Amino acid sequence: TTADPKNTWDGITLVVNETYRQKRGTVCTLPAGSAKYIHANILASNPLTPLTLEAYYYSDGTDEPSLPRPEIFSNVTTNGVGTILLRSSSNVLIQNLKIATAPQSTYLLVGVKIWARTAGVFSGVTVRNCEITGHDYGISPTLSSTDAGAELTDITLEGNDIHDNIGGIVAVFEAPLTNYIRRYRVLNNKVHHNGQNWRANVVLGGILHKYPSSGTDPTRAYKDVIVDGNEVWDNEGYSISLYNVYNETFMSRVSRNHVHDNNQSEAFDSHSIFVARSFGVVVEENLIENNSGYAAGPHGTACGVLIDTDATINEGGDGCIVRRNV
């Protein structure tokens, strides 16, 4: 903070309602270690004064957006955490940072992990105008509470450059019944060149929703999802996928995205926009071009838009609308 300046993120304990800034043009390399990541642990800030991690340039704390983003480079040696880990926290803003690491084969590491680990409603997280690269997943809202009554709500990922990870933006749902990811918005991001260094047990692709293999259930679901205005290109695997989406206050939609030149290796099953086990999703006004499927796969791979009712369990697809796509 400006009241207590540091020259490293290492050892800083984040607290509610504070703003933490890194100067543009600098690189902070975190030391190697199992706990060497930036951690907001069960912090509930005021919506009017969110916990903020951001760039600055001038001595008065103001910014100069024309200069390169400040970089945080991770060497963490713990599985399943993030270079920035928001654990059961609310009202957090992360903006104008570069978050990087060197691809490796031992630990599953996320650039920004938004994690509901305990029961409770955790809301109001925004990641905006960041560059995130080198991780297993670039950004991952993750609901993995073992208790009922956990929610991630009002999560906004906007204007980010997500590249050279394995999965770009990957929402992960691993929770029992009566858990939700609500009002989840993925807006105007550039998601590209992810999945090039794929390894087992890590989902590869662009903008993805990961969900348990059991059937749909409105009490364990994504609700009110918007994927709008993104450019998604040169990723391996699926470009955009939604699973188990239900509507609550409005119709979820995948709209105005430019999806092109994905899965060029033809080594993975892939569809350009894939909506599975979902109800009332609108897919509209997307530009979809030059994407490839699985060369060794069955007939039907590489659909431009696929609304999948999941033939094995005969669920999903009701009320979905596909219109005005090119």
Radius of gyration from the alpha-carbon trace, in angstroms: 19 Å
Question: What is the element string, with H for helices and E for strands?
Answer: EEEEEEEEEEEEEEEEEEEEEEEEEEEEE
Approximately how much beta-strand content do the residues carry? Answer: 35-45%
Structural class: mainly beta
**End-to-end span in angstroms?**
48 Å
- Percent of residues in helices: under 10%
pLDDT < 50 runs, ≥5 residues = none
Question: Helical stretch count?
Answer: 0
* Total strands: 29
Mean pLDDT: 91
Summarize the biggest pleated sheet: 11 strands, parallel
What does the overall shape look like?
A: globular
Your description of this structure?
The chain has 326 residues and is mainly β. The model has no long low-confidence stretch (mean pLDDT 91). It is built from no helices and 29 strands. Strands 1, 4, 7, 10, 13, 16, 19, 22, 23, 26 and 29 form an 11-stranded parallel β-sheet that branches. Strands 2-5-8-11-14-17-20-24-27 form a 9-stranded parallel β-sheet, with no helix packed on it. It is 0% helix and 44% strand.
Keywords:
326 residues, mainly beta, 44% strand
Concise overview:
By secondary structure, the chain is an all-beta fold.
SSE blueprint and pairings:
Elements: E1 19-23, E2 27-29, E3 38-41, E4 51-56, E5 71-74, E6 81-87, E7 92-95, E8 98-101, E9 109-116, E10 120-128, E11 131-133, E12 137-143, E13 150-158, E14 161-163, E15 167-173, E16 179-187, E17 190-192, E18 205-210, E19 220-228, E20 231-233, E21 238-243, E22 245-246, E23 253-255, E24 258-260, E25 273-276, E26 282-284, E27 287-289, E28 305-308, E29 321-323
Parallel strand pairs: 1-4, 2-5, 3-6, 4-7, 5-8, 6-9, 7-10, 8-11, 9-12, 10-13, 11-14, 12-15, 13-16, 14-17, 15-18, 16-19, 17-20, 18-21, 19-22, 19-23, 20-24, 21-25, 23-26, 24-27, 25-28, 26-29
